[in-house]
Input
Amino acid sequence: MSGFGTLFRKEIIRFGKVAMQTVLAPVLTALLYLLIFSHVLAAHVEVYPGVGYTAFLMPGLIMMSILQNAFANSSSSLIQSKQSGSIVFILLPPLAHFEFFSAYLLAAIVRGIVVGAGVLVVGLFFADLNLARPLWVVAFALLASAAFGALGIMAGIWADKYDHLAGVQNFIIMPLTFLSGVFYSIHSLPAFWQGMSHYNPVFYMIDGFRYGFHGQSDVSPWLSLAAVTPVTLLLGGLALRLIQTGYKLRH
Amino acid sequence: MHALRGVDLDIAEGEFFALLGPNGAGKTTLISLLAGLARPSAGSAAVMGHDVVRDYRLARRSLGVVPQELVYDAFFTVREMLRFQSGYYGLHRNDAWIDELLENLSLADKADAYTRTLSGGMKRRLLVAQALVHKPPVIVLDEPTAGVDVELRQSLWAFIRRLNREGHTILLTTHYLEEAEELCERVAMLKEGRIVALDRTVNLLRREDEQRLELVLSSTLLPENLDARVVGHDGNRFVLALPDYAELEGILAELRRNGIRIERMQLRQADLEEVFIKLVGQGA
Output
């Protein structure tokens, strides 16, 4: 696994060199959501007894940042190297398929969690947040960032231009995250949308993650774990398969 | 669509081999197959005995490829790129060799420059350095001197020759036929995915053993009865085939009769370019 370490390090340095765009900007975006929504809604909404709206909102925003940034890291790195042609530098060496896959995946996880941690730290200035069940927090952060990092690998390999990636981001990732209970409890939704939410894996990622902070959630964290784990494994397996077959990377 | 058809080629260890052919002949496809950038629909290829599909990791470890496209990763400096490239091959303390590469490729003063700030020729030499970080026994250079100026081209070739003397096998594609003529022991010419000639360079040149008469004339038109001899023509510069020295007299007389003045004249052997054009056809 000697090549893995180098490729992983390269991927970390890559987003580190443009941290303004890859870390600070998404933290600021999340902070703006936090300020606006908590200002508008804090007085009106109490989702769980004893949990203020700002404190309720924070885990949702953190998870949303983790997902979006894990996806952005692997997908944009791949499409950039494909477009510039520098992808040959990793196609020519004797990297095993699994090394290629795990380096991109792990870098996506790190980027997602770094941004998520940034949102958490900044958010603590605005609301007190418990860490009722920290293991759940860690488990869902890892599973969710891995799932979206793998999705990013697939999208980055598949996309021929940035427009394709923007399509995935705007038409799949954004609706899935916004309609998953980042800003509300699905119990406040009409029955139909409540039912639909149960088919959205992001709902379980956020709900399980929120349970780790507040010890309260819409569904049992075990159910969320049972829903998220196979999704992560499936997406990871598919991404690895794409790399093994050389789809769009080797002709 | 098959970019390559029935190509059967063996390059011996330690050889300096050239692959020639017009654009679209399949040179780059052949290299992509060796490098694992493309997969063959039929047939097989091996590097140092390692099948490029079955034993891809060993095959790739044996191979260093300088790609034709001038690619670079704008995020990193020259030294960072070379360290990463070393790391992909499992070499984590490679700075001594990296420095030697930079020195030999005249990039030492650019070690800490971002790759996007390099000129085209420097980017090309960085690609050469990247291909050599792991001291591969087989080195493939796909048009390595395109955009590199003459002086640096010489030092690049001196370095590649040294690597060849030290036992590295070199496979080269180039548009500069004089380079292949000067450097390579053997040459394969590709046309439309097939090998049309494969021989030692000296044998290929001997095949065209007639003399060439190079003329620069006062006219851009030749007398009609000399047309059959023309093997090259560019403005008022003509290259004529001369199977027998005795025919020279007749040619000169014909020019004089038509009132055409000779501004320059030279007799020489056919070069690889003429062999090449003859074998792969005009427009090459």
Chain A is about 75% helix and 0% strand. Residues 2-245 of chain A form one domain. The radius of gyration of chain A is 18 Å.
